[in-house]
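Dear Dr. H.,

I hope your travels went smoothly. While you were away I took the liberty of generating a structure for the chain from your last submission, since the lab meeting agenda had it listed for discussion. I wanted you to have the full record in hand beforehand rather than looking at slides cold. The sequence, exactly as received, is reproduced here:
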Amino acid sequence: MLNLDIPASERQTTIPANQSYCLLSIITTPGKAESMTRFALQNGAIMAHSCFAHGTVPNHILSLLGLAGVRRELVIFTVPEASGQNLMDLLCARFNIGKAMNGIAFLQNLNNHVTPGDVKKESDYIMIAAIVNEGDGESVVESARRCHPVGASILRALGSADHSKKTFNFEIFPKKEIVLIIAHSCHTEVLCQSIFGELRTEIPGRGILFSTGLERVVGVLDVEQERNGEQDSPDSPQDALQDFDQSLPAADYVALFAVVNRGHTGKIINVAEQCGGSGATILHVREMDSASQSWYSRLGDAEKEIVLMLAPHEISTAITKELTEFSATHKSGHILIGRFDVDRFQHLSDQGTAKDHPKF
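The corresponding predicted structure, in token form, is as follows:
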């Protein structure tokens, strides 16, 4: 579900409770993010959340020159599902998204009524996400590119606190990286297997890998594989799969996210753990809506945090219910809640399996 029942004194936007939503995400240069956001809010978007990212381009020459990594910004718009396609068209036309490496846009429906065993809709594109320890993000990208020349974005994040470790009574949040790869669905298996095969370890807490289908993508970088005499990359996903013993298991998991005021993540994680959840990833973001007209709070800091959790269907439903009740009874910490399907899920540590709860 999506809980946006926030008093008018705190947020001027009002949204019908029974409306379906989608997420329209754009990865672009920082100089364009704010103008894109203002345009989107004037043309149907409810709100926007933004954070900086490190973009990578699969170009051998640029890599030699040290220019393959570029600064990017990820902007996520919450949009009524009925308006998502139209807003995407407007943004792409206005800001030339998809032309000359001018950014990438992807649309993802939120599924707030998922039930175990539901037949998942086939998608032409997928998003692969790897949540790993700080410093491992580049390894994820390199392992993916050994089988297919994809672009990727790396976000800085935090893992949920280890409650047994405190310094001066402050909880320690380990630093993490979220690697996002947008690709054709026919490459899902080989990309996931390449990443899994490279990063798999017996060390606990290495990270997780999952994928989810996308409704639409504009601007995905299709690059012909470079060859220099010898063929060091597979001709097709089917060829590459011969190098792996088995496929990644399909997942009966749901990704649940909660957007909260900065400093309230501990409460959210505690509620989730009481419902059987285990682990979360925290992303610092800035928020803008039609009322605020600004990315920044009065202190100039990022004013929101996104708490991302993956859990089996039953547990995610229980977490959603408890977070909704928590939001209604704790007026200082209103929560925006959303869920989306996970197609494949795997721990990067041998001690975990797809049947275990993900530990971030």
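Two observations you may find useful: Residues 1-16, 223-237, 240-247, 353-357 have pLDDT under 50 and may be disordered. The chain has two domains: 21-249, 253-340.

With kind regards,
E. W.
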